[in-house]
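Q: Hi! First time doing this. I have a protein sequence and I read that you can turn it into a structure. Is that right? Here it is:
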Amino acid sequence: MKNPLISVIIPVYNIMDCLERCVASVCAQTYENLEILLVDDGSTDGTGGMCDELSGKDARIRVFHKPNGGSSSARNYGIERARGEYLGFVDSDDFVEPDMYASLAEQALKGGWQIVQVSRDEIDENGEKRPDVCKPPGQICFMTSEEFLRELLLHRGDCSFCTKLTSRSLLGDRRFPEGELNEDFFLLTELLQETSGVCILPRQLYHVYYRIGSNTRKKDRNDFSRVFVDIVRNADYVQAVVEKRYPALKEEAVRFGLFQRLDYLLHIPVKKMVSGDDFYMAVKRYCRKHIADTIKSPYLTGKQKAYLLLLTAAPKTVRRVHGAVMELRK
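A: Yes, that's right. Below is the predicted 3D structure, encoded as structure tokens:
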């Protein structure tokens, strides 16, 4: 296939202020064999009507309206209706550079790769570039599935499907888990087990719009997003995968499990840290079981080790002190 069809799926929900910029950036792609699927996930603010208006301006845009079910539900709905040999995903508040999909397709066809990734940056509400979450490579590179998974376990890799072009044949019948957050990590871990690896482009062609109010960026620091539970569950899943498929990554997987639980323990409200909460108690047991791993891990910083050991010994007390310190700093 010289120019295979690429289906770009954009889940949409109550996003009138950003949608036009997002869609315009995809419509401006230099890669011509493209279809754009806008999946309106039960918007209530007029966004659905905006989708219909945008489709009238570009014949490549297909619009679908469905009851609200969340981002994964909207993505899966789009996958079922996509016609392309390759799939791309863009979040409706983000935007992309004009040559993103041309660059991805070129490398996918040249190397026969099933997953190709561009690098990304984050832009804040003032239009300023934030520090890079994932450091771009110096040049185009290929990582085996094991190498890429290791980067994810060390929090240096990019698990987002928005930065990737993925072969439809690789995806097969797999879908994003619905009703969960951090869903990209789970699905990507599944796909890595079925492909040779990921080709990564150094250019930052995908722009994440970072603003307070999204799923994991709550204004109220006392809000406890479900994402902190889901990241622990994903850590358990990937640890089981490592034990079965990539035993050389055992230390990294344990480090990942500890780090995710540290994040959980630093965000769960103190009032929820009770013996009747089975999930919280399981987190405590894991940390206690891995005290020796915490101490000897070469992948945790001294500060992370200190917090983990203190939270393992006296979680409520440490959280109260930590909260008081943060309040003083504020």
